[in-house]
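Lecture 7 notes: from sequence to structure.

We start with a single chain of 175 residues. Read the sequence below before looking at the structure.
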Amino acid sequence: MQLNKFGRAIALAAALVFAGTTGAATASASVSAEPVDLYSEVTAADIADPTALLGPEDTGFEAAQTANGAINWFRNRNGSTAYQGYCERAVRLAWNRKTHHASAIAHWRSSDGARHTTGTPPRGAFVFWNISKYGHVGLADGNGGVWATSVNGKIGHAKQHYFGNYLGWKRGNSN
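Now the structure, written as tokens:
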């Protein structure tokens, strides 16, 4: 099974911790006169390159409790169809929210944050539309655009008016 970059970072850390003892154990367990190395040496080049540990696709685990973290969550899943029909779940996961709502319309109608029906939603705000009995929700980019599910059938970025029947917005949070 191929490890992702985060898994390789853990393996690298383990190799650093056990590197000294592995060679000694190998040497003493070996019957031949020459010790056999069962590990490859970790060099400064392996550690100095931060992309060897975390690449751009691994961003978004900055607690995802900031507007940038929540938007990065969506950006890192751009093009994914995994959350079709689960827009409320997607914004909840993006913000790492403790509060769960049954649907986007339930979130809009809840006392979970003040409702705003005018103005440009700030970066990371929950943006709501009444497009079905469950509604729809996405995250504002702060410039009149949104990250959402169901943008051409997948997670994507669109202008706020991409969806009809705009309801308004609530400040994004990880409550």
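Helices lie at 5-29, 44-48, 67-75, 87-95, 104-109. Keep this in mind for problem set 3.
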